[in-house]
Amino acid sequence: MRSTLRDPWFPVLACLVGCAAPAADGADGSDDATSGTAAGTTAVDGETTQAAETAPDPDTTDGTAANDTTGPSPGGALVIVPEAVVLAPGATAQFVAHTSDGDAQAVTWSVPEADGGSIDPSGLYHAPAAEGVFHVVATSDADSDVTAEATVTVAAVEGCDGLPAPGTWENITPPSNFPDAVNGTVGAAVIVDPFDPGTVWLGTGGENDEIWRSDDCGAGWERVNTGPGSVGDGMTYGGVGDGAQWSMMVDPVDPGVLFAVSGYGAQSLWRSTDGGVQWTDLFVDEEYGAVAEYRFVNNVSMDPADHRHLLVTTHGGCAEPYQPSCMAETLDGGESWRVLTSPEGWIEGGGVVIVEGDTWVWCGSILMVTEDAGATWSTDNLEGGGSCEAEYTIRPLVPTVSGNRYLGSRSGVIRSADGVQWEHVPNTSGFMVMLAHGSTHLYAADQWSPTLRRAALVDDATWEDVPAPSEQIAMGHDGGIPFLAYDDAHHVLYASMFSGGVARMVVE
User: Fold this and answer.
1) CA 288 – CA 366 distance, rounded (Å)
2) How far apart are CA 157 and CA 175, in angstroms?
3) 503 lies in some domain
4) Is 214 helix (H, G, I), strand (E, B) or coil?
5) CB atoms closer than 10 angstroms to residue 165
6) Is residue 162 within 8 Å of residue 219, measured between CB atoms?
7) CA gap 219, 337 in Å, rounded
8) pLDDT tens-digit profile of 384-420?
9) For position 129, which CATH number holds?
10) Confidence bin at 75 (pLDDT 50/70/90)
């Protein structure tokens, strides 16, 4: 049985379990561990607030070290979330510090062990290549006597049995009953689980009712949406499975929490807190549900630095005073929402992506950026002009180990070092809509043709062709690969292809 790991994308927020980061100061024992200062705030309606995490129980019963606090701290003791993680060598995890009462705390991060990895000012930890038990320390900037400690266990991940030979695509489509798709299933969003890379989540098109989960890297599947909110009664739209889950998010901090759209079906945004069994419509009795046309949610984006901060856009127009279209923001994981006007009307393939906090990217007729939570938007942020793709958002926009963020577009791949100013990546022209990355490579796919390419993160201007599952794509009728996911621990690349089903390949 595989060990249960935390990480991603998605980290615990930034790159899939098993990501091997380039050696940083303190990562190989040659220098002191890195440290930094961060405060993490989100501005809403002109006020600066902190989206509070739920403080963990300071008492543990499984032998795992709890947060160790020293000295008084206004608003309660200083705590770190998560308080303990298990990571593969070279993987990353996002840590957040606040008081036990949920108040924001500016802290300096450090790793006391010389060979224990490194942590940057935002709390993003990079595990070392060697296995062992290490620690992350947060020191309050207001009082250096106030500290908290989290435990990091670095251990190798066990393999998935029965993987295909490297470089060979394997059809792993779960069975359903739609006649015009591979194995009866229209594949949509595909996501590698942030807690265990052997677990894969699969959304489907509106032609199917299922949301699937695999615990063996896609070799076998189990339908999970079987409880309330899963599907309607066959006569009315009433469940997440009634539509297409082309945009989904798996919470990288709270296990079992998922978000999904239900395009051309039940619409809205749906949340599950039990691993996909039961689903709740988040816009019942919310203003957004009343003003958004058909309650049609286009995409959902999660803040890579705050798992309770999400945005949705509308697949259409909105009523006054939010014309021509609108979006909605939550800072508490979907319990409450505020509605705001989008910078322009809905564009096919468009949507919004959270960079971090108040900084968001709008993908529409052109790329726009707001740094004040949607109050104002700038339009000169992409060198050479153009836009980006955001309708099929399936993971937070986390930086790669090189520090760059990447988005797909209909004119190649674009990148940014800060999430504000963007540029086109050389040698990537064409419809490179869907991206996935691990610790060493970035993968890009064309939604409308069997084209798949990759580049090393250390040299993202040099690209090479990767064999696509062309035969399986040809069995469907959609032409390309709209969804990609990468499991860095097992080196498995997943392609979800609408009527072409789902495939996996081990990459070298």
Assistant:
1) 25
2) 29
3) no
4) strand
5) 8
6) yes
7) 39
8) 999 999 999 999 998 887 889 999 999 999 999 999 9
9) 2.60.40.1080
10) low
Residue at 481 is within a domain: no
Percent of the chain at pLDDT > 90 equals: 69
pTM, entire model: 0.77
Q: Is 499 helix (H, G, I), strand (E, B) or coil?
A: coil
Q: In the structure encoding, which two tokens stand for residue 455, read together? A: 């580049």
- The Cα–Cα gap between 74 and 163 comes to 52
User: CB-based contacts of 435: which residues, under 8 Å, 6+ apart?
Assistant: 406, 407, 408, 413, 442, 443, 444, 445, 484
Contact 13, 304 (CB under 8 A): yes
Burial of 236 (0-12, 13-18, 19+ CB in 10 A): exposed
Burial of 385 (0-12, 13-18, 19+ CB in 10 A): exposed
Q: Are residues 402 and 261 in the same domain?
A: yes
For 189, 446, 450, the CA distances from 168, given in Å and listed in that order, are 22, 19, 15
Q: Is residue 198 part of a domain?
A: no
| CA distances in angstroms from 309 to 73, 135, 298, 305, 337, listed in the order given | 26, 27, 17, 9, 10
Q: CA 402, CA 138: separation in Å to the nearest integer?
A: 24
Cα(138)–Cα(106) distance, integer angstroms: 9
